[in-house]
Amino acid sequence: MVSNGCSEIRCVKRHLMLEALASELPSDRIRYLSKVVAIEESGFSKILHLSDGTTIKTKVLIGCDGVNSVVAKWLGFKEAAFARRSGIRGYAQYENNHGFEPKFMQFFGDGFRAGVIPTDEKAVYWFFTWNPTSQDKDQEHNSAVLKQIVLDKLEKMPSDVRSVIENTELHNFFSSRLRYRHPWELLFGNISKGNVCVAGDAFHPMTPDLGQGGCSALEDGVVLARCLGEAFSKKQGTHLKDDDEEEHQYKRIVEALKKYANERRWRGIDLISTAYMIGVIQQGGSKLVGFLRDKFLASFLAGLLLKKSGFDCGKLDNR
Length: 319
Prior knowledge:
This protein is of the alpha+beta class. The chain has 9 helices and 13 strands. The strands form 4 sheets. The chain has a 5-stranded antiparallel beta sheet with strand order 8-9-10-7-11, with helices on both faces. Strands 3-4-5 form a 3-stranded antiparallel beta sheet. A 3-stranded mixed beta sheet has the order 6-13-12.
């Protein structure tokens, strides 16, 4: 946990969060390994064609299908751009108490940035972002090579920090090239169209420098549920025919998704832009950028991190 007295940041294990979310749904509502490969119009509905050959007809299509989103492409978004940086992350599991205080530690070097934060008394999460060479990119899926890259870069770091990397099992190393969506795409693009919208990384992929990728996806979920809840709770008169009721419901869904898009557009632009800017400054390889960062910008950037994480997206209506 990181705190400045009124705000705090906590590190949560991803699988625990996913299990908590999944437990709120009936087990038959979740379909695994079923990537969307095509989207078809069908009156006021959409038909999804999945990679396993099945089809699903839906009144509302919410694309939460990640940075390579098929739904985002259908809405007209381009592929997410590469930030010319790569990231390695992992976690070390200890048999006994690791001894670290519940604090977020950051370290900077020539073209790299690293961070370490405990998740509980026996586990420590860490990340490492750097500007890889072409040779590094060829080895980005080799965990043993990745581990050595991190240890070599962190050779001047405190021994207890290096021990976290050394104690990380190879299967707990994860590497990816950092990608983001250009902010102006959110400004002029279709976050929603008809009864289709995007959320999470499909909507606003960003570099991990704010640690707000997953958090902002949860924000999307709250706002989206509130908007759709209002749309589905509105009852039309009983005099409407089935076809007319379907059309009226479609129109309510369209307006709800527009409301969601308008409410989340600037938050997405803000996070993408700020994360990218912080990444450039904190990982800048030039001596001038490093001097300004260390001498003048360190406290400002730390405060910005807390400020962006303290966003209030409102509450759901409990009716």
